[in-house]
Amino acid sequence: MIQEYDIAILGGGISGFSVALRLQNKGYKTVVFEAHGQLGGCAGFFTKSDFSFDVGATTLVDFVEGGVGGNFFRDINLELPKGEYIEYIAWLPDKEVILYRDFEKWNKERLDKLGATEKHVKFWNLMDKVTKVFWNASRENIKLPIQSLKDLYIVIKTIGIRNVYLVKYLNVTMLDVLKKYNLENDKLLIGLLSMLIEDTVHSTIDKAPFINAALGATIRGAGLMRADGGMKGFWNHLAIHYLEMGGTLKKGNRVINFSKEEESWNIKTSKGTFKSKKIISSLPVDLTYKIGTDAVKSKLHPFIVKNKKEHGSAIVVFLGVPEIEVSNQVYTHHQLLLDYEAKLGNGNNMFVSVSAKNDTLSAPAGFRSVMLSTHCELSEWQNLSETEYQIKKHKIGQKLVESARKVYPNLGENAVIYEIGTPTTYQKFTSRTDGSVGGFKQTLKNSNFKAIPQDIGVENFWLTGDNTWPGLGTVAGLISGRIASEYAEK
User: Fold this and answer.
1) Which is it for strands 367-376 and 272-281: parallel, antiparallel or unpaired?
2) Could you tell me the maximum CA-CA distance found in the chain, to the nearest angstrom?
3) Three-class DSSP category at 40
4) Angle between helices 68-75 and 474-489 (to 10 degrees)
């Protein structure tokens, strides 16, 4: 007998699983199909020899009471996960800048380290205004892209009538705003902003929409957390709650295709066929397109064409090291820019995340888990022979570890775990096309009003995930998931 559900969610990443939790909490009979052995997607984890490593996102954004993450946990009647709220150091080539959570400390730090001229003050005042308004709008359930008068009303309501003029900044880049204040040649400021923008919206100052870039550059003040046990601890916390509510989790079930039959969807997976009245896909758009019906393909095709060149990937080095190798720093998270003039990626802009002391879910007692991550272009890893691939993989791994020794001089000298993840790794283990990770690189052409909506116009079918609005990161995944779940409830 074929099992039937109210709503099927394809993919168990942060977007998809948050949808499942919201809907299951409302009394719907839900099922989550996850192709892999555990939940997480691009905010997932893997374990090896008693170590647990985060494979994508290492931090949770806005996971405080009243924040996007806090509101989500309130809505599903679950306590926020335990963890450490972090501040971190941005290591510029010639200067260290501490990204404090506390606004007053951060305001003093940025003026002391990055310049306190009148033009700097005016720039930061605009950044503060924009981020305050749009962080609040995100927490008040803003809806984009606008597809109806109701959506327009929600946008105006969440932003506030007095702040609607700020919407004009959706159509300019961060570089446009820097030019407005004659700061386009400020090496320090541009260096810091560039590394923060690439890390959060996968873009550059000349292409990233100003508001998106501003929000990305200010996550330090938005309840930035690393859960106890990293992403392993976070997903255990969520999965237990979902199962206790009666949700069905089908791990190791890869969705092969889905088709419409009268009032239901038939979902064919690697472990059987299932039926559902509604579907929400949190798979990347190109994978949804590949397994979708003709109607789904028709609606998604224009977005796939538009974003064809906006894919990117990452390289990550995973280290299990003795405690002493990372004990010289108070902070457990760092971001390094090695060269102001060089292109970002491949080690020039690297994020370092270290598990907390005594976090024995992440590492055995006396050891720490360390993740060194950097962005890269997909093309650099394509069409390589096995020998070429192994050489390239070895070189970039060595480069990241050596670069991280600016922070931790003895890092990796006695590592008990040393693994390197590349786009090829992501392609193999996550089935992402060519190993692309995260959402599309955000530009004026594919963000906000021009983003892929959750509702593409196929009956009882919706999208969520990092390719839809707002895209990219844990907080964006929760917003996208909330919108999709609201559609499914209608």
Assistant:
1) unpaired
2) 72
3) strand
4) 40
**Domain contains 146:** yes
Q: What is the pLDDT along the chain (490 residues), one digit of tens a residue?
A: 688 999 999 999 999 999 999 999 999 999 999 999 889 988 899 999 999 999 988 999 999 999 999 999 999 999 999 999 999 999 999 999 999 999 999 999 999 999 999 999 999 999 999 999 999 999 999 999 999 999 999 999 999 999 999 999 989 999 999 999 999 999 999 999 999 999 999 999 999 999 999 999 998 888 899 999 999 999 999 999 999 999 999 999 999 999 998 889 999 999 999 999 999 999 999 999 999 999 999 999 999 999 999 999 999 999 999 999 999 999 999 999 999 999 999 999 999 999 999 999 999 999 999 999 999 999 999 999 999 999 999 999 999 999 999 999 999 999 999 999 999 998 887 778 888 988 899 999 999 999 999 999 999 999 999 899 998 889 999 999 999 999 999 8
CATH number where 466 lies = 3.50.50.60
Q: What is the DSSP letter of 173?
A: B
Element holding 282 (H helix, E strand): none
What is 351-394 written as a DSSP string? EEEEPPTT-TTTS-TTEEEEEEEEEE-GGGGSS--HHHHHHHHH
DSSP structure string for 389-437? HHHHHHHHHHHHHHHHTTTSTTTTTT-SEEEEE-HHHHHHHH--GGG--
Around Cβ 196, how many Cβ atoms within 10 Å? 23
Q: Which amino acid is at 83?
A: G
Which residue, 435, 465, 480, sits at the end of a domain?
A: 435
Q: Are residues 343 and 400 in the same domain?
A: yes
Let me know if residue 327 belongs to a domain: yes
In a domain, residue 114? The reply is yes
Bond prior to 470 in cis (omega within 30° of 0): yes
For 160-280, where are the alpha helices, taking DSSP H only?
Answer: 174-180, 187-201, 210-216, 230-244
The pair of structure tokens assigned to 281 is: 């896909």
Domain membership flag for residue 324? yes
Cα–Cα distance measured from residue 146 to residue 233, given in angstroms and rounded to the nearest whole number: 36
Q: How far is CA 13 from CA 9, 45, 285, in A?
A: 10, 11, 14
Range of the domain at 27: 4-41+230-308+440-489
Strands lying side by side in the sheet with 367-376: 95-99, 88-92, 333-336, 350-354, 367-376, 313-322, 417-421
Q: Which of 413, 435, 457 is the last residue of a domain?
A: 435
d(CA 219, CA 333): 13
Check which CATH number belongs to the domain holding 384 and give it: 3.90.660
CA triplet 426, 370, 15: central angle to 5 degrees? Answer: 45
